[in-house]
Amino acid sequence: MHISLLSLMKIECRFGFAKAFVNIGPWLYNHRQAITIPIVKSFFTELRKLNPDTKIGVAGFCWGGRYAILLGQSHFNEEKLVDSVFAGHPSFVSIPADVQNPVVPVSIAVASTDTVYSPAMAEKTETLWAHDDVENEIVIYEGAKHGFCVRGNMKDEKEKEDMIKSCEQVCFRVNGPEGLTLGDELV
Predict the structure, then answer these.
(1) Which of 175, 104, 163, 103 is nearest to 139 (CA)?
(2) For the segment 32-69, what is each residue's pLDDT rounded down to a tens digit?
């Protein structure tokens, strides 16, 4: 029996996908909304209670991006738990439900090639935010892939540049005019 290199590559790709699915499936189950939201609410409620006069900024990436966005929404909790939000290449965001009523400044970094939180989703989000009094922003990074904020190749100049710019976006949102100021103590 003769197996070509191409056949081996196809098998490896299928196995790699299957292996990833086997690993991610249990993780997604163990980190589903019903489990995660109570943990997030509990943590930030306690953090706010222990630090009532401290401004709190939150940054979330991929899966955590959704929960960062939710923390800034009016329907997430009765009291405001954070003062500013950054989400980098968020995942599992439901539009309009998860983004329609921000009560704090929200900044989202979007990869132009992302299918998880696509530029089309970003456009819908911006449309929902058009009439808000809260200063929000969405920055689309051209040519970037999902995960670019934290998994970019530092040897690739474009990926490195996008990572650095997204870090600056986090800092502006946390420290900018509508977020926390540089003199504020961060928790």
Answers:
(1) 163
(2) 889 999 999 999 999 999 999 988 999 999 999 999 99
Q: What is the CATH number of domain 36-175?
A: 3.40.50.1820
- pTM for the model stands at 0.81
* SS3 letters across the chain: CCCCHHHHHHHHHHHHHHHHHHHHHHHHHHCCHHHHHHHHHHHHHHHHHHCCCCCCEEEEECHHHHHHHHHCECCCCCCCCCCEEEEECCCCCCCCCCCCCECCCEEEEEECCCCCCCHHHHHHHHHHHCCCCCCCEEEEECCCCCCHHHHCCCCCHHHHHHHHHHHHHHHHHHHCCCCCCCCCCCC
pLDDT in tens, 76-94: 999 999 999 999 999 999 9
CA atoms of 70 and 86, how far apart (whole Å): 11
